[in-house]
Amino acid sequence: MSLAVAGTLLVGVTPAAAVDGDPADAVVLTEDFSSGQLPAGWTSHLGTWQVRDGRLHGSSVSGQRARITFGTSHENYRLDATVDFLQVTDPSRWLNLAADFHGAEDYGSVFVVRSNTTLSNGLEYAVRTSVAGSYTSPTVAAAGVALGTDSTHALSLEVRGARATLSIDGVPYLSTNDLFRSNGTLGLVVNNATVAFDDIRVTRLAREATGPGEPTGLRVAYDDTRATLSWQPPAEPGTTAGGAAATVTGYQVAAGPAGTGPAGLTWTPAAGTSHTFAGLAPGAYTLWVRAVNSAGRAGEPAGANASPGVPRIKGFHQNVSGGAWPAGHVQGIAVDQENGFIYYSFTNLLVKTDRDGNVVGTVGGFTGHLGDLDFNETDGRVYGSLEYKAQNAFYIAIVDVDAIDRIGMQAQNSALVTTVHLAEVVADFTADLDGNGVFDGNTGDTPDHRYGSSGIDGVSFGPRFGETGGTRYLTVAYGVYANLTRTDNDHQVLVQYDVRDWAGYEQPLVEAAPHRSGPTEVSGKYFVRTGNTTYGVQNLAYDDFLQRWFLGVYAGAKPEFPNYTLFAVDAATRPVRGELIGTGGEQGLLVPLATDGLTHPATGIRGWFQKADVGIESLGDGLFYLARNGTRNGQQTADLTLYRWTGAADAPFAAVSRESELYRAPVMTSAAPPAAKAGRTYSHTFTASAFPKATFTVVAGALPAGLTLDSATGVLSGVPVRPGRAAFTVAAANGVDPGATQAVVIMIAPARQGPDKEH
């Protein structure tokens, strides 16, 4: 096994510390061949190896890999030798310095040095990991000097664990950080050449001091011109020369443009575990910190994002990134507005960031498909769709997101993630519609799967369909196979659950033994005819301000439909029982699409061409985050952009650049207040659509005696004192003209004589 040792390789500088228990570098082998004999412990495996004139001559003909082995491939060492190509069949012929080698079987790690080292592959790191394999060259380089023939040059190979550097005449030309180690020996190899070797020396190198790991727990606070970065010490302080544990003695900080790495930045010392960067021009930055230890080594840098002087809109950035991850593409997002966190589902990884995109922690260990997410304001947890199609198991994953505080947390067998099984979904997914007694499995090309169900994707909390208030239900959208030969898969299926009684169903996530604990019935099942889609509603979002549901989908492919990618349903529109077109007469609760957007004349279907399939989140006051997936360095990314709703048919969302774009004069939205009764508690709430939020005052008439109006909340409450008729006018104002008013008349009935009877 090899050990990769951290730190910086200083070519030409002898490390001053111990390795393998030694207090300093130790020369463990020297050979100048002055004895005239092949030294003891040197073993020839192929070719001709002879000592002549005080040098070791190795010869190969007919493509032989002439080879000889000696010594030990220590964990950290330097092999020095002088070489002279005496004869070559052509300038591309070569010798090898074998770094970790099995000479009899001819496999391991070798460094190729050609006679013409200036070729593009004049130098190679070559590796053969087993007797049955073949040599490959993952690293090649050209040297600045050609060795040629009848010219002596000094070669040096320095190895530290899995890191190695090859130098010619003191100049490093080729390096690798992935040296294959297999407890081999050192050696020399020659191909179609005769090479003279001399002055062989092996130095067992002292272990280098190593730098600390990354500082942890980074946090950022900033205003218009300053940003304060705070952190906790790294988990690993590094080592001193010789391998003893070092101590962290201080920190260095630097600032650079957001999205770029720490290379090339100017580092300055920092006192304690926080630093304030002052005098920053408005912009997006990454603030970096690294620890320095008692060995004088600077450690790995950690960075956090900050945007001083960049205006936020309602506390949100115009753009924010969820980072780049070796996972599946982003499936959905959720926002905890009160605490300032954003959550991303990357198919098999959950990522938690702050509003600036600084990663707080991750949860992995999902081998199923983690889909869309939503934040439940009632219990402070994130709910997401989770599929295990091979096991016919469909769950809502419930994540205790307050406990996510580090990268690399695991979902399985922990209290961090619980799951609730959805039997209704399983019944539709596994439905044997052709009656042949065989469920056809996870494939769209089959008559099975009721309504074309492929499982679940979109999730969101909102009111019961047909209502705009009251209990919040978890709404779960089916995935739907695109199967172009079916007619019963053109509706989106939305099921609602009352999660207030789910505590008894929740079970830990144990993927090896999928449980079936969950509700056997749904609180409601609804159908929205959108026409064909590819895998149904990928993202579902409810917006309180607009009082509507948004359905983001992958476009369908049936030519008879418009194949829009975004649909909307108004919350107040009551479902109506009717026929599910294409199912052969089956009835269901139909919810019509909203009446704005593009209209498809042939079908009457309305919607938009708008990307909302990997993340859409309502933020209030007509604001939304929409996600876009991509890749960076082969890893999956999620970039959020802040939009405002326009409702326009060709562009329903517009990017927001300043908060003033949201300013809206108040519009009263509350119904007329109900009648009251003297001596009985009374309450009514005045509401207005406005940004900023409106305040409420009485501008004409007077409130009934015993009632007061809360200006901030619009709540009219108290106990009326006298019966009669009270007339007054309530105004809503927020600084945006014109304000709004509502004329109010409240009839106050006399108090009943004797006991009050309720009917």
TrEMBL record:
It comes from the Bacteria. Residues 211-313 form the Fibronectin type-III domain. Residues 1-18 form the signal peptide. CDD domains: FN3. Keywords: Carbohydrate metabolism, Glycosidase, Hydrolase, Polysaccharide degradation, Signal. It holds the Pfam family He_PIG. This is Fibronectin type-III domain-containing protein. The lineage of its organism: Bacteria, Bacillati, Actinomycetota, Actinomycetes, Micromonosporales.
